[in-house]
């Protein structure tokens, strides 16, 4: 039944010479046979702005919260039914809706697989990276979970953007920087020794000098894990350079707090 349905949709779309869908073709593109079609249509209509005014002003947020479950139920072969709705929710004016999607985008990536993730989720993910802190934190908390699903070349593109997580709308938002340090520890397994030294090392040293002690404590663990990772790499020059920098920057620091940092990292 599934094959015949997809065959019917494919043949029907071939009849159109125009690249844009008519309303009838738009409806047929959302046809599936996993759940009753009326139930899916009802779910997809939750993004209609008029529903927010007449039913519940947080209906779009409920829709966003349920989307990974709906995607899992329908399967990746029926992602075409949800794609437009997902993009609509990702550009919703309410930050709570975008925040909900940001917290679950890594789960959706697992459901959809690497090809659909690269084509449909990565652009949304990139948009969330530049959003409000309330939305960015959702992406940051599961940064490792999302990046590990990408191909290496695509994953390396985000090395240039990690530095941006040090800047927040509110400088007192220290939990943001603490979460960044936690994620960087996990990200060490995804990148080469050169990438760690060139991109992650400067961020780690910056976090070690943070004004908030909770951020610094996590950063000490980050640097020690970095030393371990570079020590086990085939190229030994990176770990030697890193340890020389630790001695120069912290061990010989004029301030006692810098020398204390060196002791804690050694510990």
TrEMBL record:
InterPro entries: ARM-like (IPR011989), ARM-type_fold (IPR016024), PP2A_Regulatory_Subunit_A (IPR051023). This is PP4R1 phosphatase. Transmembrane segments: none annotated. Keywords: Repeat. The keyword RNA-binding does not apply. Coiled coil: none annotated. One of its GO terms (cellular component) is cytoplasm. The keyword Cytoplasm does not apply. GO terms for molecular function: protein phosphatase regulator activity. It comes from Eolophus roseicapilla (Galah cockatoo).
């Amino acid at each position: 039944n599934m094959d015949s349905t997809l065959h019917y949709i494919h043949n029907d779309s071939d009849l159109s010479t125009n690249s844009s869908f008519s309303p009838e073709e738009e409806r047929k593109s959302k046809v599936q046979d996993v759940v009753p079609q009326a139930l899916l249509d009802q779910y997809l209509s939750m993004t209609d702005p008029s529903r927010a005014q007449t039913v519940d002003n947080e209906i779009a947020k409920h829709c966003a919260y349920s989307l990974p479950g709906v995607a899992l139920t329908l399967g990746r072969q029926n992602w075409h039914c949800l794609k437009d709705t997902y993009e609509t929710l990702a550009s919703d004016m309410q930050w709570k809706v975008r925040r909900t999607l940001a917290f679950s985008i890594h789960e959706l990536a697992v459901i959809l697989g690497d090809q659909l993730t690269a084509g449909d989720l990565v652009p949304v993910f990139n948009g969330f990276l530049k959003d409000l802190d309330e939305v960015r934190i959702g992406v940051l908390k599961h940064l490792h979970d999302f990046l590990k699903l990408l191909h290496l070349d695509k994953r390396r593109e985000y090395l240039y953007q990690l530095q941006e997580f040090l800047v927040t709308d509110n400088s007192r938002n220290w939990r943001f920087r603490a979460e960044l340090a936690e994620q960087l520890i996990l990200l060490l397994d995804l990148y080469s020794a050169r990438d760690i030294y060139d991109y992650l090392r400067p961020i780690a040293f910056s976090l070690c000098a943070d004004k908030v002690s909770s951020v610094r404590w996590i950063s000490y663990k980050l640097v020690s894990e970095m030393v371990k990772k570079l020590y086990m790499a085939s190229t030994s020059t990176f770990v030697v350079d890193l340890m020389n920098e630790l001695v120069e920057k912290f061990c010989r620091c004029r301030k006692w707090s810098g020398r204390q940092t060196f002791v804690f990292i050694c510990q």
